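Pipeline run #58 for the internal structure catalog. This entry was flagged by the ingest filter as a single-chain record with no existing model, so it goes straight to prediction. Upstream metadata was stripped on purpose; only the residue string is passed forward. Reviewer on rotation: M.T. Logging verbosity set to normal.
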Amino acid sequence: MKASLGLINGKIISAVCATALIFGFSTGDLMAARHPRVRQVNRRFENQQDRIAAGVKSGALTSREAARLENREANLKAQENFFRAENGGHLTLQEQAKLNREENGLSRSIHSQKHDAQVQNITPKSEVGQRLENQQDRIAQGIKSGSLTARETSRLEARETFLRGQIASDRNANGGRLTDAERAQTNGERTI
């Protein structure tokens, strides 16, 4: 029985090492990622990402608010990576405490931004509004699944904010409506 468990553990360890090599990690990186302080900080990061995604999905966070929050989260992640690079993939108690204090500040910001008077239009009345809503949903799904980094989300949300501003400006200039050319430009279509 013990020999078979050793063989199973050996196969699992071999599979983990092979996966690490495929994705460009060293086995030391994987072991460091399992360290309790690193896991705790990463759980907080994932929780914040889930809260931002929920705010984007519900409309409680505007694209501008989400972009700012994601930029702060990306900076915290970069700081964590810097700390870990200096310590062989680990975090010291002081570094963990510093990251947690900064995550606490970000957590308060997420709460206040989600509960302020600004909301994203979540009931689009036009084709353009529906496309914007679909894009926000896709961004929220990317945040939730982890397929978008905080930095990527920040860039996407900044572009979304710019686009919403451009649409509002065009509508104000045309009595609340978009011209066919403006609608086509917004949808990324060619006009002939």
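catalog note: Residues 63-86 form the longest helix (24 residues).
catalog note: Confidence is low (pLDDT under 50) at residues 1-28.
status: ready for reviewer M.T.
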